[in-house]
Amino acid sequence: MTGQFPPSITIPPLKTPHGITVIFLHGRGFNAQKFHGSLLQTDIGNRTFQEALPHARFVFPTAPLSRATKYRRVLMHQWYDGTGDWEPEARGGMQPSIEHIHGLIRSEIEVADNDSKRIVLAGFSQGAAMAFVSSLLWDGGPLGAVVGLCGFMPLASHLLNILDDDGIEFGADDDVFEPSQCADARMSHQKVLDELREEAELPGTQQTSEFRFPSTPAFIGHGSADREVVVQHASQARLLLQKLGLDVDFHTYEGLGHWYSASMLKDLVQFLATQLKVQPPLG
Q1: Radius of gyration of the chain, Cα coordinates, nearest whole angstrom
Q2: Cβ neighbours, 10 Å, residue 48
Q3: 175 pLDDT more than 50
Q4: Best label site of 21, 155, 201, 245, fewest CB within 10 Å?
Q5: Where is the Phospholipase/carboxylesterase/thioesterase domain (predicted)?
């Protein structure tokens, strides 16, 4: 049915004990059933992507069906409507998806012994956009990582202008600022969150004196030949996240179009190994 979220597909770890949980959001026009199998079984060398993360639990939600403005109002699975895969604005429909994803995060934190740092929020294309926005607007404990493959950040140019106008960057471990500079940086971050919440039509204003997202590392992978979401949009996402204080591991892949590759997934495994110590880096 339109507007409803189908049940997620959950893949248990290949080995015990359960280490991390990866919530992976598909792109527009896909669903969990079409997306998860080929991703997990991608050969990244001497093993599949899933085999490289044997202690990981994977959760693949499906976006609701809605009319896509870009495709002449064709009915398809999408996390929100918009003008294109790189759209600078959301154009409505983002609120239910963010609330659904936050609900999944809360549920998976319980499964992970209430350890939010064992949760990785990942996405492909429009799913990457939702992963970025949902992680920034998440008001629980810090997540283990956020991952965007072939994706973009909605409102990136506008949000960068907010930060550039204020002229201050602030990270989780920065202690070199004067108190007034720290206050200015927090105010800039609050403006960014307020803009995102308004665009997503989320109720109220999330006021906080402590931002948890700077402690969440980010991985961004993108093909240099991507014509659906050109690599400049991934670069903008990286710049925005860095200005918000996140540590971003950014990779481009020569000649790759709008899809993931074995090299990209291998780099992702190494990133998770380094950041979350879930598996020794691949040789």
Answers
A1: 18
A2: 17
A3: no
A4: 201
A5: 15-159, 208-274
